[in-house]
Amino acid sequence: MSWTDIETWIGENSPALYAVLLPSSSAVDIADAEESIGYALPAELVAWWRQFGGIGETYARWALVPPMWQPHGLDNALRLRTLMMQAISGIAFRTLGEEKDYEAAALREPAGTPCVDIWLPAWLPVAADGSGHELFVDLRGGPRHGCVMEWDKYSGADRDPLWPNVTAMLDDALRALRGETGHRLVFDRNDFHWE
Length: 195
Description:
This protein is α+β, with helices and mostly antiparallel strands. The chain has seven helices and six strands. It has helices at 2-13, 15-19, 27-37, 43-49, 74-88, 96-108, 166-177; strands at residues 70-71, 123-128, 134-138, 148-151, 185-188, 191-194. It has a four-stranded antiparallel β-sheet. A two-stranded antiparallel ribbon has the order 5-6. The protein is globular. The two termini are 26 Å apart.
């Protein structure tokens, strides 16, 4: 998996980031998470979080996934999932019944189907930009189960998936970190960002 190589890159190029990497999740942590959210996690997401526990610092410092995304570990993903469901609830609908009907219909759609008016319980954040935009894994069923989509704080999840899974997202990030894409990494003291 690309995370091992990304972590090696971090150790060699950003000691400040390496120092704030959090401990990885255990098999028990993963099982508890699956039980609490009611969805099985894709194997590649489980494998990643068994290696990566998150970053114990602010989003503005280390956007590992271009152009602006700092990845979440399991604990932060669960916290943000709950926060997003609460924050988006009650905004676009006149009644709770309307919202629940909309949610039920959206949950029947296959993974990767855009949804703009509500944060679905089948969505689990995997990265953020720190200003209200999230990348999430879509845990709904269908051939694109486990795809990575973007939540825009203004327009919701109104686009097709960005990656078919977290492995593809991490592979792209690794290629960018190695300078193999059009993204340019800029270091500023202990921080870095993409241009």
